[in-house]
């Protein structure tokens, strides 16, 4: 099925080329024909302002240019009529019989209706949801998930090779707080009276994670230094819960990107080294700053806090560098 906007753009471009031939003078630069919906629909179904751009190179008003270009528009089964309105718009009315004929094409196309090759097999990564793995999803997260999945589907229907990615913030202060909260809840299930710090995660989902660990491993993590294994298990439980919730929405990710990998594979340090070579790092107030003012920004940004932990800003840089 033809793309009506692309078809209209091509027809106006053809009319423009015929107009230019009559002028004995080529344009100094190529112009892109843009077709849009007019704000006032009484003018027509679509409109173009190409005459405004062309009039800058010819000794005529946009209205005169629009009228001349319009005279070269081919009569066909798509355009029913056109009208020039001040200060120089060409307004197009679509043939109603053509519109009606599209119903059968839509029915025949079925699920492929709306497909196009605009993407030309270009690679696109869509990163969305990316909720911290410190608890289960809530309705606000689901809203973002549906929007991200829709964007991904639209791109796929337009011949983009889409990779759906979930960014797992599995390092830093929030994940440390999560790990500590799960550990304490786990201990409490064995009547070990350890108090939760004030800033701990206190939701029922944390208790559920602790209970699952107890069900699967009983008191294993009360003995010896097994914190790393406990934290890994707790992380996997939460990520599985998140993945299952998304699956119920019909949303599946091609890649779950671990923020921790940025540090394990040296990517984060590589970014810092690059900034150092470019003299963009400075120590200020006990923290390390990136002098983004040298790059045209209004202010500098902290990339390492005074306790040497990275900021969200710095991990985002490393992620995009990857």
In short:
The chain is α/β, with parallel strands linked by helices. The chain is built from 11 helices and 9 strands.
List its traits.
Rossmann fold, 3-stranded parallel sheet, elongated, 322 residues, 3-stranded antiparallel sheet, Gyrase A, domain 2, 3 domains, 15% strand, alpha/beta, 45% helix, 9 strands, 11 helices
What number of structural domains do the residues give?
A: 3
Overall pLDDT:
94
Helix content: 40-55%
**What is the CATH first-level class name of the largest domain?**
Alpha Beta
Distance between the termini: 39 Å
Strand content is 5-15%
Query: How many helical elements?
Result: 11
What is the CA-atom radius of gyration, in angstroms? Answer: 30 Å
SSE ordering:
HEHHEEHEHEHHHEHHEEEH
Quickly give the structural class.
alpha/beta
Taking the sheet with the most strands, its summary is:
3 strands, antiparallel
CATH homologous superfamily descriptor of the largest domain: HUPs
Low-confidence stretches: none
- Gross geometry: elongated
